[in-house]
Model the fold of this input.
Amino acid sequence: MQTAGRKFMGSRTVKSLALLYGTVIIICGCGKQERTLEEIELERRTLPTVFITQESRTHVTAPLNQGVVVHEPTGELAYPAFACGNPNCPGREGDQPFLFIQTDPTLSVGPNNELVRGPPKGAFNMPVCPACLAVRDLENETLQEQAQYMRWAEEYLPPESAAREAELDEEYQRVYEKSGRRVGGQ
Ligand SMILES: [Zn+2]
Done:
C-alpha cells in the first residue's frame, strides 16, 4: 500500500514538473529539442580520433567507430591509436603520451584499395606498447607488472574529443535519468 502511495505521489510530482517545465519553455521561447540517447551515443561513437598507418606511421584523423581502414593516399592499413600511460615510457616526448597501434596480421589491402580480411590466426593479442616492450625484462616480470603494462595501453582519444566525450557522458546521464523517471511515473 505504501509503495503504491509513493508511486502515485511520484507520478503527480513528475506531471507537475513536466507542466512547469513546458510552461517555462513556452514563456522564454528557448525550447531546444532534447536529443535522444541514440543521438548522443552516435556522436560519442563517431568522435574524431587518431589513426596511424601501418608502415609510414602517418597520423590520420577519422571517426572513432571506423575500425581499421585503408588510408587511400598511401594504400596502407590505418589502425586506431593506443596511448601508453606509463609515465616512464621510453617513447614519451614531453607531456605527450606515446601513440602506437595494434596491427592485425589477418588484414591486408586488396588491389582496389579495399580491406581484405583473411582467416583468423590464433588468439586475439592484447595491445602492447612497443617502446616499453623494448626495455621490459619479460623473463623476470611479475604478473602484477604484466597487468600494469596492459592497463597502461589504452585507446587514445585526442584531448578535444576526450573533453567532448565527458560532456556527452553527462548529457547521456541527464537524458537517461529523465526518461527513467518518466517510465517510473506511468
Ligand atoms: Zn610505453
Notes: Residues 84, 86, 89, 91, 98, 129, 131-132 surround zinc ion (CB under 6 Å). The two ends are 17 Å apart (CA to CA).
